[in-house]
Amino acid sequence: MDSTQFNQQILSLSDKLFRFAKSMLQNGDAAQDAVQDLNLKLWEKRKMLDQVENVPAFAMKSMRNLCLDVLRKNKDEVELPAEVEYNEPNPHLQIERTDMVKQVKDLIDGLPDLQRTIIRMRDVEGMEISEIAFVTSLTENAVTVNLSRARQRIREKILFEQNRTEKNIWKS
């Protein structure tokens, strides 16, 4: 693979790799470092990339592995950005939406590693099931099942919290 092909196939994925790394590492600086590290590693092995059938999926899988390595090294919890801004005139709706986004992020973070990774890849990054299967070394059926279970778990926890809140309101 020459430098032009590398630019077209690898460097063009930088934004997608960054978003994926940021969703896993929950830190923009660490995600940027991870993208740079991966680009350097892939550049050093660019001669072997001609043998790779699906270069974008290979790059995503490599980023996943790199992020997992970083997370293993840094067992410390990284804070999530809790604030989301909306252009709503009603401040109550704005606060409610911000709270819901934080709740969903917390619920996703509470999922088992595999389900968390799959739901982020599919729902945040918009990756196809086949790409996720390649990156995670699972079958497409296993990816679909894990994605369904993750979404179901989040749905159940949100409904449980809503019911609990409604019952507390009626008791007051």
Task: Explain what this protein looks like in three dimensions.
73% of the residues lie in helices and 0% in strands. About 5% of the residues have low confidence. The protein has 172 residues and is mainly α.
Compose a concise summary of this entry.
With 172 residues, this protein is an all-alpha fold.
| Distance, first to last CA | 68 Å
The helix/strand order is: HHHHHHHH
Taking all Cα atoms into account, the compactness measure Rg is 19 Å
Number of helices: 8
Strand residue percentage: under 5%
List keywords for this structure.
single chain; 172 residues; mainly alpha
Q: Mind sketching the topology for me?
A:
Blueprint: H1 3-9, H2 14-25, H3 28-44, H4 55-73, H5 91-109, H6 113-124, H7 129-136, H8 140-171
